[in-house]
């Protein structure tokens, strides 16, 4: 039995997800590393099937998704050498605010090449979702695509499918939107997917360590640089408002920090093209320990950005499937708190892990 999903945005993250589904299919019956849960509710990673995909780049639109994931400007590392033709052709999506204007100033090798195909109406997108028999939509739109993210959330509601919001537009964490999914009895997980071991989860862990050991934190920063289209897109600082809120709240909440109490800066720093999908994070924490003596910590973390979140999304998909099979609608609080930076309710990571484990145990 397969979990049928639709993907919005065939970028690096979608590429890592689809490659990962194939990779873990190859490893059936063998010990495979890299997943938090090898099985959820009887479903393995290889049981996920992408049946629908939308994009706006002409190098991807009209191609089979097995080919589209390797087209420029995608630059993430290959997990598998070959993916069989899926029979799923990438459809033209709705642009809205999905592309920052400054992206046109860069080489097409590292930026979008907009398709000239006619954009579909909402009615057509809802029809595509229903025809594909997708059970949920996975939102992989660029940061700052506020209108586009909400548009596809509305499409999910009208089509009667679940929604996993991997980007920092506040939908699952917005009570008005949460109520809409509850009323339709459709599950939603969000907002802003965490990485497996990324900047936010590491920063949260260190802040929590300082707090638990009685250290008073005075100031901290988290700076990130990378060379994929996500970092290029975020050069437009106007598109960063919700991203900064999401990442900052994630760190503040675990340390019970207030902006008035600590000088905290969390956010992207710059775009470095030759880094490609590699993301480098710099974290610094300054505080005072026993006797008011200063303590300083600096850390550098280097990860391949897109695969780092793919395993978390695979878990989110399987939890969304459990909710659908058990007729559970609305925000999935446990999964959202563990998988996402800006859930409707924040918990310390150890508590969030117990919450998601209880959710899985209850419904599988």
TrEMBL record:
Gene3D superfamilies: Dihydrodipicolinate Reductase, domain 2, NAD(P)-binding Rossmann-like Domain. It comes from the Bacteria. Pfam families: Inos-1-P_synth. Residues 198-306 form the Myo-inositol-1-phosphate synthase GAPDH-like domain. PANTHER family: INOSITOL-3-PHOSPHATE SYNTHASE. Belongs to the myo-inositol 1-phosphate synthase family. This is Inositol-3-phosphate synthase. It comes from Clostridium cibarium.
